[in-house]
Amino acid sequence: MMRLPPFRYFAPKTAQEAAKMLADHAADEAMAVAGGTDLYPNMKRRQFTPKVLVGLAGVENTRAVSGSAEKGITIGGMMTLTRVEQNELLRAHYPAIANAAELVSSPILRNMGTIGGNLCVDTRCNYYNQNYEWRKAINFCMKKDGEICWVAPSSRRCWAVSSSDTAPVFIALDAECTLVGVDGERRVPVKSLYQQDGIHFLKKKPEEILTEIHVPKVNGTRATYLKLRRRGSIDFPILGVAAALETAKDGTIEKARIVLTAVESAPVEADKAEALLVGKKLNEDLIEEAASVAYRPAKPLDNTDLTNAYRKKMARVYVARALRELMRAEP
Question: Within 13 Å, how many C-alpha atoms sit on residue 267's CB side?
Fold first, then answer.
């Protein structure tokens, strides 16, 4: 039986207090925990061994949705994924967010996991997400205790992949988030949270707490999220595609976003495909052309389920499916 390592647990009431607690310890000695659905299993496998956990469950004013489709909304970072998927405002006007939350893991874990936690969820890899004895048998890997990335042995960086279902949707919707630290708070685009490094994949400071997610007004935007995984529940994405389109009254695309996840260490925006769509009206030929361009930034390696060649091929298929879904949803 895998057991948690010993740790001290702090329960702050405010985000500022939580940030101060984290800042008072070295970055590898203290970690924040919300639902714990990813952190606790990682601790049992000794991928993380913090001496202090700062619990965010009691942080005030972080568990509600406010605003409107006409003005934009704010989602509290500590809202459980279940509450996000069931929220009437989100289901009515931001269904892609609710759908992405509903596709995370399983119902039981969504009752515990938070939307902020999913945005910050650890990157994943076949050589990393194993128990301690398995990892020791291969002399560990670069992401934890070792020196080599077994996916790309000559690489100087870790290639573990981004595994958040909600991140690509928020990026596609041009969402921002509030980060609270010891020096105050700042508001940044969700896109700027990530970088292409499987170990240091988050660009926020270690002590900063993600307290809110801000999504712009709907303004005619339609969005969707599709997820590829082996099973219909539990599994992390081995490919995720978020697409969002803003169109004029005549159907001409004025703004387009296509974001892929689980193909790199950070969500990948298919900017060339986006540019191809702008100024045109969706049809089958345009969808196929955009999909053939959008899948090119996907660089899956042998680090998750199924073969990398299949996942690369499915990126094209899923982009086309997402765009067709948006075409069918035209008013």
Answer: 30
